[in-house]
């Protein structure tokens, strides 16, 4: 009794709270329209009251979560997670987000963007009194599975006092059927694009028509071409009347992107726009100029010198990650090593991610780990062995360290040919200093790698693949000012990986040839099959053609499956391709290439009339006395009709066979004539010097072939002829036949 009374009291309090919050929201001024450029930047110490339309002016001095007009349940969750003071992006976002506006949020890496959207999501559904029967109220989309998992954890811990149901929908999970049974009842979905789309396509009761909030974390990445198809398909199934949040450290301002999302007067909140640096201030950044063949030595020396640090090492492809990880692991540097890339199974990926959060170790990874991940205990160093494809990619990679209030350091290995990247980074307000590598202190590792490759011959293959995919990754980069494959010392590079011989790089040879004939370009450009250019497998090509697809490779595959006929089951680890897909529109799958459009069944006989026009099947029996219409009425006549038809078809078939036999026979005779004529002439010209016996043998052999092959209708006529006439007579006969043909 007492329990039910207190529950009732709690409910009444809740209703009162919701009404109070709603009336406050109603009292706020309407949005004044979207013009990102006109928005005064928010200084990091600005009170909220500086926002353009005085929204939240009553909370202008608020710096703590507890001062905000949000539910007690959210406040309790925040307190228990030890979140008390708001960060800049959180302070800037809440006024608008709580008022129901669309947000484009941009802030440096590690500045708390996650809470900036998680809290408004919880509050929105709370104020709407969202319950299990209301279905999906919010969708949060992340480009990678690891990041989705991380967002889900934050949502669970901050929202643990709320009664919403939430689910994590990510690719690579095998329990998709179990998911299908409950996904329709979930209120908040945290997902990767591929798996969300899969549910939209396959799950019968999955309904998003009541969606209140859509969040795109790492928005610029999700709006990127790699996710274009998937996102468009998702958006087409969502209601346009909704609140949309886009967050990223490198936010998009593309009007096209915003149009795709049907944003309504969004607020562009870029809290660090006026900041002196685009990266966290506590991040120390260095670039080391090092040649390609010295990169592994440099990395090995770096690791040996920092065995007490937690280090994240970025390489450009899965194959490289695999090779460097395998090789260095065997060389035992004295610190645990791990690897993370898009071709690993989900369980392993998640396992590695969690382990790296826990332990001091080195993680070799591709860009799959470049965005959003907040490794629990601070990462000390971010090492970029391979140059990032652009400035945004650099910002996200280094952003894995120096998060929130902690410091961090990063090193970028730059080859002399990539020096332009340094200028680009500095132009983008990234304080990076370059130093020259001190080669005297390098610990060479190539000798050790050569020995390893001899000891483990399987590793040679891995090394070759890594070598080729690296070159290919440079070749396909868009920014040719920085990435020029022809400037690379490929032989030295191959040797530095321990390879005894430089693998054949067909596309490089082609390229240099093209360069040498560039003054006399060929009239028609050569069609290049990319796969053949390199001599690497399609899988590797996929890996490279969609390097950023790695971000959620399994999901891409799933999307492939939706759009294109891919062979694998949807929930298996996909091959590009995160990245799949999601697959660039220009890419043609091998399977697709092989598809043949057959317009009529194989073996269908085409019948021509006397004028040479094709006749429809059965047209030849159209003159029959029975018409189908009348036959349909009468069963007996029908039988008779079919009998007649069968008979006619049989006759037609026999006739066709006979004609075909005749035609083939004529052809054979013609061929034989030709053959005999040629040989006769040849013998006359060429055999004059031969021994009579030898020539005779050859003649007799050929004669035999000639007559034996005349084997129409299965009769061995040749034997008869051979038996009845001599060799000379046979030749004379052949001549006679020839001369009659010429006449
Ligand atoms: N108000 C806060 N008080 C204390 N810690 C916070 C607060 N907001 C965020 N953090 C912590 O800061 C770290 C970074 O937060 P978050 O991952 O949201 O950053 P982000 O801006 O999304 O980074 P990225 O751009 O890399 O995705 C996390 O460890 C988070 O727990």
Automatic annotation (TrEMBL):
Residues 511-533, 679-723 are annotated as: Disordered. Residues 681-694 have a biased composition (Acidic residues). Residues 94-269 form the Helicase ATP-binding domain. Pfam families: CTE_SPB4 (PF13959), DEAD (PF00270), Helicase_C (PF00271). Its EC number is 3.6.4.13. It catalyses: ATP + H2O = ADP + phosphate + H(+). GO terms for molecular function: ATP binding; hydrolase activity; RNA binding; RNA helicase activity. InterPro entries: DEAD/DEAH_box_helicase_dom, Helicase_ATP-bd, Helicase_C-like, P-loop_NTPase, RNA-helicase_DEAD-box_CS, SPB4-like_CTE. Transmembrane segments: none annotated. Keywords: ATP-binding, Helicase, Hydrolase, Nucleotide-binding, RNA-binding. Belongs to the DEAD box helicase family. The Q motif is unique to and characteristic of the DEAD box family of RNA helicases and controls ATP binding and hydrolysis. This is ATP-dependent RNA helicase. It comes from Rhamnella rubrinervis.
